[in-house]
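Q: Got a minute? One more chain.
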Amino acid sequence: MAGVARIVIGAVFLLIGLVFLLTIIGFLFGLVAIVIGVVLLASGASARGDRQRMLAQQTQTNQLLQQQMQLAAMQANRPVYPPAYYPTPPYTAPPPPLGGGAASPPPFETPSGQRYCPSCGGGNATASAFCERCGKPLPSAG
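A: Always. Here it is, folded:
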């Protein structure tokens, strides 16, 4: 129906444009009216199949909606599987206490016999064969 109305209005604009072209004052108005008339005639001719196109689009949309509803119903009725196994994260040590920085190791106490390790400089008992601090063999006492 819209196509027929555009064709009729386009024809009227064409006639008005031709009348205005005959007068000197209305020449510009005549050209504008002719252009509008041609555009309306062309769009009216192309709009004649709009109803069939709209029906085809509605049919296609309805089919897509039905497919989506069927898929949603199938997904809602599927059996629930157990959740996938997720391993526990590796153990991380707790943060240090807030009291201060890292605790320094206690100072090394030298036994009463003064025998020093050539590797680490730690003091050892005179009867020791290995360093009490680093564990390396001590040179023979002699």
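A: The longest strand covers residues 115-116.
Q: Perfect, thanks.
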